[in-house]
Amino acid sequence: MTSFIAALPCTRAEADAAALAEEPFAAFEPAPTLVAAETADGWALHLYSEMAPAAALLDALQAIAPSSGAAPTVRMIDDEDWVTLSQAGLEPVDIGRFHIHTAEHAHAHKPGQWPIRIDAGLAFGTGQHATTAGCIGAAVRLAKRGKARNILDVGTGSGILAFAANRLHPSARLTAADLDAVATAVARKNARLNRVPAGRRRGAIALLTAPGVEHALIAGRGPYDLVFANILAGPLVALAPSVSAVVKRDGTLILAGLLQSQAARVSAAYRARGLVLVEHPRHAEWPVLVFRKAGPASRRAALRASRRETAGRGWQADTI
Q1: Most buried of 5, 77, 265, 282 (most Cβ within 10 A)?
Q2: Which phi and psi (to 5°) does residue 249 adopt?
Q3: What are the tens digits of pLDDT across the range 104-118?
Q4: C-alpha to C-alpha distance for 35 and 276, rounded to whole angstroms
């Protein structure tokens, strides 16, 4: 198969904004894939397409990174899987004892490290972004204070947070969900690559497709003493009633995917539901918010709230 790659230098802020953009090229067919990549010279946007990109598509790419001041460079790729190629330059990331890597860097971890291989493909979450790294860092700190027994990952994407949680809390019952069926399939593949058991027993991960927490299994397995939601600021605010409802009394909620300028709005939505903000790194561009639940959980309230939240909404809960 012959494919094409259009490359455009950008700033770190433009790369982060591109990673958060919801379907920036939805008007183009066949749909291209946009990847924000760290390079030897800084940051760049890589657009992968099955056909030679039209001038309108290149203009749309350039509009995302106005700092470049130049047109994208385009070259042809012969007989390559361009989704795999898009990850080829990703360097491993070390977070605590975790060593997160792609297939290109397999077996490069040091003795004592916990390797996690993530071939994200069509789902977000490779450990490169500050939100993912921040969530894992927060989970590592919390694990030192005690083991969680029941964990939920909302918007699991590639499954990376669920795999880290499984390693930190090997006896926990873990549920991971994403509203995108493709992401769920990618997470299942990644689970097999990392030999993480799938299923509903303790020590395994139950992976499912669901918007927010609107699923009978999620409600039935709650309440949860540890919940991750690494999505976007808008969905986080929208999901506040239902996500808050499934957190156990004295449980912990870790939120990410928001900019510092959005933290006050997201925090207010959860504090209004009885959660107490215990961590907010105010100098981070992409802060990770950690909450404690003061009141009891409510399965019925969670299901009722989630059905109201997701009815007719068009937002996407993509993990970065």
Answers
A1: 5
A2: -55, 130
A3: 666 666 787 787 888
A4: 36
Report residue 36 CA to chain centroid gap: 14
Q: Give the full edge-to-edge strand order of the sheet including 93-95.
A: 93-95, 98-101, 114-117
CATH placement of domain 2-85: 3.30.70
The structure tokens 């749309």 sit at 60
Q: Tell me which residue of 178, 182, 136 sits closest to 155, measured CA to CA.
A: 178
| C-alpha angle 21-24-27 in degrees, rounded to nearest 5 | 155
Q: Which CATH number fits domain 93-310: 3.20.20.140, 3.30.200.20, 3.40.50.150, 3.40.50.720?
A: 3.40.50.150
Q: Which of 238, 289, 282 is nearest to 260 (CA)?
A: 282
CATH topology of 2-85 equal to that of 93-310?
no
Tell me the C-alpha distance between 241 and 158, whole Å. Answer: 25
Return the structure tokens found at 242: 């239902």
245 sits in which H/E element: helix 240-246
| Domain ranges for the chain | 2-85, 93-310
CA dist 19 and 131 (Å) reads 11
State the residue for tokens 């989970």.
Answer: 139
Categorize the per-residue pLDDT at 317 as very low, low, confident or very high, splitting at 50, 70 and 90.
Answer: very low
* Residue 272 structure tokens: 């209004």
